[in-house]
Amino acid sequence: MKKLFIILSATLVIACNSSKEKSKVDKNTSKEMISENNKEKVNDTVPYEDSVMLLGKANRNGFQMDAFKDWFNTGYANYEVDSETVEKLKPLLKDITITVFMGTWCEDSQRETPHFYKIIDETGFDESKLTLVTVSEEKTTPQGFEEGKNITNVPTIIFYKNDKELGRIVEYPIESLEKDMFAILSGKEYKHAYAE
């Protein structure tokens, strides 16, 4: 049983980190992603293994699809927010925009994304200032939303002020999502898990 757990753990780490893994994304989906009036669609899915994955721009409504709602709703409901740190975050989020890159296929994303949404709900963050991008196993989208963003692992949560990146949380927090967000937004020294 211990061997099986180690093998499964190693497989999950490789799945969320490896850019060599090939997903079953139809390269022609980019044509379907843009509507006739050139507005971006959100929450589009493509086939993935025995189910689907979200690919491209998305929002929390996408997580209520049958393929995702169990892990999202359970993760959201069961997460206990650090209320003390959330109170400190509230004023710091005022002029912030956030971009989240995640993969619905990735266990790290499935764990952290519902927690992140619960935290921003507790802070009263204006969700119109949040961009959610769902990526393939190669960390790509048909529209190239990831280009120039150095997305190597997911989830990657990037915090901006006046269009300047303040910092990012990559794959998992160092202390906790709330404390890592506070460190980034308060200007403290912070290095994400893959920083050199």
TrEMBL record:
Gene3D superfamilies: Glutaredoxin. This is Thiol reductase thioredoxin. It comes from the Bacteria. Transmembrane segments: none annotated.
